[in-house]
Write the structure tokens for this entry.
Amino acid sequence: MDKSHSYIDKIGWQFDNTYTKLPNYMFSKLSPIPVNTPEVVAFNYSLSKEIGLDFSNIPNKDLALIFSGNLLPRGSDTIAQAYAGHQFGHFTMLGDGRAIVIGEHITKDNKRFDIQFKGSGKTPYSRNGDGRAALEPMLREYIISEAMYGLGIPTTRSLAVVKTGETVMREIPLKGAILTRVASSHIRVGTFQYAIFFKDKNNLKTFFDYTIKRHYPYIKDYKNPAIELLKIVIEKQIKLIIDWMRVGFIHGVMNTDNMTISGETIDYGPCAFMDRYDPETVFSSIDYHGRYAYFNQPSVARWNLERFAESLIPLIDNNKDKAIKIATEIINSFSEKYKKSWFEMMRRKLGLFGEDSNDESLIIDLLSWMHKNNADYTNTFCFLMDEKIEESKIYKNQGFVNWKEKWQKRLKLYDSSPEKYLKLMRSVNPLVIPRNHKIEEVLKDANSGDLNPFSNFLKVLEKPYKKQTKTNNYQFPAPSNKKKYQTFCGT
Ligand code: AMP
Ligand code: MG
């Protein structure tokens, strides 16, 4: 860094890079490959403030230099992380093929965040890829991850998108871009699968100790920390999937390398939100068999957690059979726990306090009605919260009217009042979600240089449970004559 950039030192970066102290086969040291003419497209000033970084005095041209990787902050130590993963059920060696962690930034309240550039050039793990990313998919990750944050769902965040001024070749030439992602770590189920692959228990133990020190330090002195970690990650993932189900989010590519130990949603590729309720909804163009369909998400999570448990076996007990028995019992608790949490979540969506023996059928009946009648998932709950819905004709349907009567009777149990149940419902049912057709619209505009629609949408998505002047503009489901929405992995 030359002297003319010394004000960059005042931004407030506090790097403390610990991942680079792990055994060196866990990562590769390398720098981002500089880009041609970087230009800032989106920048998250509020996130930067939250993590104690001050960019208010930094001109856009320098922001672009920093977040393209052309001008690295002092204290950064750039690496690509190694990991493995089951992709659609098949085990593969992977790693950051187009991402570089520039360092771990420590906030004033002592929180640690990976700062990662996605699209920063080839790495030893790129395989046949070019290491680059395109503008629209990076803006897509930015807006959807920030929407998830607004929805109160654990997620990695997005700090910046910078155009590179270079072309990336996909099916057609696209504008290149780099996304800066902020995550409590990038440790995945796949990182554990990688750590155990070499069958060196000491190395696995080193990585395990690193992970618990970073995420769950309080379990260090437990009798069996490996069992504890497995239990915690199961809890975290159940909570996460329940949140996804609550808002109709479909991750789209729940490979084990895309499941974090922190419980944050990661890797926004072919993800999308469901409009009309259909449990079999799949958007990803490569998910031919619906492995990652909306309603399969809990069972896939369980499958991934089994892979996680397998990689902890040597640390659970020296006796392999005993370790497997313990791990199996813990994994078997998943379904019951998930089911219980799912009903709790659905009760909240319906404003139901306490429990009643008919709750299960009340909930299932509503979902079946929505499915049969192609009702919009988000808007149905908005309608039940007395929100004005443009497409409300469907709710005059006799089946729905009958169901609503039962629901209203149930609401009266447990001393509830409209004030009470609406408050509960409004805390869990978003008025607005990043609807696919709206996302497409704003990305198209952004790609042609008009970022206003993107920023306006982002603003509304910051507070999805709160009615805002522009909320209505984003509540329409896609017109039903629109062809089936598809998402792509080339992100
Ligand atoms: P994902 O589907 O985003 O989880 O990515 C799966 C794997 O493919 C990861 O190892 C990525 O780093 C890698 N990858 C995806 N796109 C590219 C690319 N354009 N160049 C190199 N590696 C890539
Ligand atoms: Mg991934």
Summary: The chain has a mean pLDDT of 96. DSSP finds 14 helices and twelve strands in the chain. The pocket of magnesium ion (ligand 2) is lined by residues 257-258, 267 (CB under 6 Å). The longest strand covers residues 157-169.
